[in-house]
Amino acid sequence: MGVVDREFEKLEAAFQAKVEAEQRIEPKDWMPEKYRQTLIRQMSQHAHSEVVGMLPEGNWLTRAPSLKRKAILMAKIQDEGGHGLYLYSATETLGISRDQMFDQLHSGKAKYSSIFNYPTLNWADIGAIGWLVDGAAITNQIALCRCSYGPYARAMIRICKEESFHQRQGYEIMMTMAQGTEEQRDMAQDALNRWWWPTLMMFGPNDSNSAHSAQSMQWKIKRQSNDELRQKFVDATVPQAEFLNLRIPDDQLKWNEDRGHYDFGEIDWEEFRNVVKGNGLCNRERLQARVDAHEGGRWVREAALAHARKQEARKAAAAA
Amino acid sequence: MSKNNKGELPLYEVFIRSKNGLDHKHVGSLHAADAEMALMAARDVYTRRGEGVSIWVVKSTDIVASSPEDRGSFYDPADDKLYRHPTFFELPDEVGHL
Ligand SMILES: [Fe+2]
Ligand SMILES: [Fe+2]
């Protein structure tokens, strides 16, 4: 073994020891290249998900049933944009530029959560998204607050503080509709029927099929497995559905006394793979909306830069 | 740090004082064309719920940082001055709290 290899092994052992001692890794610390790449992939995908996640909800901004609902939805969507920005900024500490991340999203190289490739068909969908999709996101994100990479963990803590408003506003919409007219109740049930399974898919493949999981757990990028988190979400959500008097669309859903958890049916993984591959109902539309927004904003960024340069030059001339 | 960032707006680091009596604390970064725009963006991104009473923005390229590699030698001078810590001095219990 060469000197370089031995040096590398020493660094790697010291890194792992630090992770195991629950010390956080900070941007300028030594880290294995694969740790850096794994984080860049996961964090940028997370950022993209926050940003693309604004689109399905944005669909209802002009159609919200009251001014109050519209203002609340606007604030919620603005938070999601903020979450994207916290996460992009945290990812940049790993040495990738914002433009590189945008390029990866716009070219289809980077993924975002497949849930946002489903359409929002009725107003109850906004309730279901807040309740279920944000609820699942919270379950994931609480685990990430203890991630070994400092900037990611800090962004997660900030995000988690804001998320509970999202879930509560969603549940409140569902409650209002579930207690409303027959037609409103049906809309709420219909939304739950359509969003339940895609929400369970948000936790990713089963542990037995999850390619990156073991290494991520060892590096403490991930603190709980996909299946553990999914179970946690199901256990928390079933009673909430019962309170609404709505039925979760799963015939196998049943409390298991021995396990102390709910048993639930198998996810349609074929559908999951298909949406991830780009064949979901809205994949093309979502991506196009992002590209258009970025291109449409180009002249604003250029004008802002030109203005800044002009101001700079003026200041320099005045000082001379 | 970033390479192909032609036309990318410069990066600013954001520091926020959450209330009077506390220090400014680093909260993250953002891209803006100039300091004025950075301040407004920092308000929108980092203080949507009254998280701050004062914001500093600093161009990331203007920050000079120590490097973790020479953590040892850089802080060396402090390590051999144990008498800077109150526990260095052994005093009899009768003296009481000091
Ligand atoms: Fe979010
Ligand atoms: Fe959210």
UniProtKB/TrEMBL annotation, chain A:
UniProt keywords, alphabetically: Oxidoreductase
Example GO biological process: phenylacetate catabolic process
Pfam families: PaaA_PaaC
UniProt-recorded Gene Ontology molecular function terms: phenylacetyl-CoA 1,2-epoxidase activity
Domain of life assignment: Bacteria
EC number(s) on file: 1.14.13.149
UniProt-listed InterPro entries: Aromatic_CoA_ox/epox (IPR052703), Ferritin-like (IPR012347), Ferritin-like_SF (IPR009078), PaaA (IPR011881), PaaA_PaaC (IPR007814)
Any single Gene Ontology cellular-component annotation: cytosol
Record-linked PANTHER family: 1,2-PHENYLACETYL-COA EPOXIDASE, SUBUNIT A, PHENYLACETIC ACID DEGRADATION PROTEIN PAA
Protein's recorded name: 1,2-phenylacetyl-CoA epoxidase subunit A
Organism: Sneathiella litorea
From TrEMBL, chain B:
Matches recorded under InterPro entries: PaaB (IPR009359), PaaB_sf (IPR038693)
Oxidoreductase among keywords: yes
Keyword Nuclease: no
Superkingdom of source: Bacteria
Single GO molecular function: phenylacetyl-CoA 1,2-epoxidase activity
Pfam families linked: PaaB
EC number: 1.14.13.149
UniProt keyword annotations, A-Z: Oxidoreductase
Signal sequence interval, chain numbering: none
Protein name listed in UniProt: 1,2-phenylacetyl-CoA epoxidase subunit B
